[in-house]
Amino acid sequence: MKAFASKVEEGREGENGKPSVGPIYRNLLSKNGFPPMDPDFSTAWDIFSVSVKNHPHNRMLGWRKIVDGKVGPYNWKTYKEVYDEVLYIGSALRASGAEPGSRIGIYGANCPQWIVAMEACSAHSFVCVPLYDTLGPGAVNFIIDHAEVDFVFVQDKKVKEVLNPDCKSAKRLKAIVSFTTLSEEEKDKTFAIGIKPYSWDEFLHMGKENPWNIFPPQAHNICTIMYTSGTSGDPKGVVLTHENIAALVRGLDLFLEQFEDKMTVDDVYLSFLPLAHILDRAIEEYFFRNGASVGYYHGDLNALRDDLMELKPTLFAGVPRVFEKVYQESSRRSQSNKEKSFWHALQLVKARLGGRVRLIISGGAALSPEVEEFLRVTSCAFVCQGYGLTETCGPTTLTFPDEMCMLGTVGATAVYNDVQLEEVPEMGYDPLGTPPCGEICVRGKTVFTGYYKNPELTREAIKDGWFHTGDIGEILPNGVIKIIDRKKNLIKLSQGEYIALEHLENVYGITPIVEDIWVYGNSFKSMLVAVVVPNEEITNKWAYSNGHITPFSKLCSLDQLKKYVLSELKSTAERNKLRGFEHIKGVILDSQEFDMERGLVTATLKKKRNNMLKYYQVEIDELYQSLSIDKA
């Protein structure tokens, strides 16, 4: 069997109460040690500035103007044009009081201004802090305060959220710069709380009139603080250095050099995944490294197909939910003409992606083998799936585009990482067993330095130099990794959003009709469901007022009661400002409390989540089936 990873150290049994650990695996390109870094770049600023020298007239950033409600063709800025804007924006920040190390927030949808602001941060050793509102209510306020953000670049429609009275941390800001313009009302509000407001053109002009020399960073300097979901509400700030970014890009260089189909300056990427997430940021950095082009979607995800047809990208990246939709639509259309179903699907998928896609990347959550195989066959493109976290600066593992034997896995260890499995005895996972299974631990050049202002959480996550991901993996005989479970009750839905299950159970548990609740979701589904034990007294009152005279156990099988419980859960979700993907979309009602007799809870009444899944599996599958039919 062909090996895709090198075993550089054998596993060992734990000592003094420590868990057992499996062998250390490395990429075959790193079996004798990590390859040397590229001497041309050691920072994110080097990645961009070197490409400006090598490819000044190449198209770099593309966008579509909307005039009178109509979306026009793509307009482009060259690498040299972007570089000039970066110098002006950086100079304006310095003229406004920003110093090396200052934290600069960027808040809004992907667009050229986002990247210009990001590169200006690199030019002057500022720290880029993306602000991402779907982390939950109050996240923007929390991040501005926690990261001590001094200046914020804001998309025009997001300005009102920064100026909202609930965003109390905005008062610490020195200036707000709109991606476009600010209304007079918005300017008045910013002045009123002591913040200087600028339109994009005004800030560019200030930089032009007040030029500053750049102050490039060192490899060990902080490049960005990316905030990601925390289990108990507050986001956690992942500190990534310039070396992390440079190692990511160099590793991708070496990885892709192995394949016949090389990336060129003519490649085009459609950016619609949030730049505040590591996946899109990693891909764009790699495109900039190669002097290639990035075109941004025009802001409407429902009209993404129009951007695809206009841009005709050669690389398309998405989260599993995007590909699931393509698969479902293709399946429905193909069934109407069974004799030509394969050819119909082939033409449909290729056309839907613009007709020129050579490589498809799926990340953010696990892609089901069924959908992956469908994409490989029908897209006429290579499909690459990766596994990684913000903490690992993106891909920790990658599948080989041309290896069908990696189907259903997340591939082999990336070039600048070591991977090792650690025993999880309470879940029965043994890295020295057959097959070897355990918590995935990572170390290497792309691993973050820690959580900003949170040494306790950092110590919990990084032990003996290894970052503990919380994901459970299985090592296949060829060294390829398969994700099989999650150590903590934090899961990703198929669109790549994290869900803290126990937190949601605490929120939904306050609903009067809920006696107890178990929330369930997995990374192959986009919706959450729940098993609810209704409160018997309140249920009986509902039954009486709705003309139902039947025992409690039979009431729990009524569709009307399920709809009522769902409506109550929805009210609770809205009152607590839960995000849309945190809303429960379907329920199973159980008249019996979760008990030890059925093995559903521990002696201290903690839910045994694996046991509960096994117990309710059939009903859960049926519920998801009915939800998918309703949605279709």
Automatic annotation (TrEMBL):
Q: What is its EC number?
A: 6.2.1.3
Entry keyword annotation includes Nucleotide-binding: yes
To which pathway does this protein belong? Lipid metabolism; fatty acid metabolism
Catalytic activity annotated for this protein?
a long-chain fatty acid + ATP + CoA = a long-chain fatty acyl-CoA + AMP + diphosphate
Q: What class of enzyme is it?
A: ligase
Locate the AMP-dependent synthetase/ligase domain: which residues? 63-452
One GO biological process term is:
wax biosynthetic process
Instruction: Give the GO molecular function terms.
Output: ATP binding; long-chain fatty acid-CoA ligase activity
| Keyword terms, alphabetized | ATP-binding, Fatty acid metabolism, Ligase, Lipid metabolism, Nucleotide-binding
Gene Ontology CC entries for this record: endoplasmic reticulum; membrane
**PANTHER family the record matches:** LONG-CHAIN-FATTY-ACID--COA LIGASE
Q: Which family does it belong to?
A: Belongs to the ATP-dependent AMP-binding enzyme family.
The role this protein plays is: Catalyzes the conversion of long-chain fatty acids to their active form acyl-CoAs for both synthesis of cellular lipids, and degradation via beta-oxidation.
Protein known as: Long-chain-fatty-acid--CoA ligase
Say which species the protein is native to: Lupinus angustifolius (Narrow-leaved blue lupine)
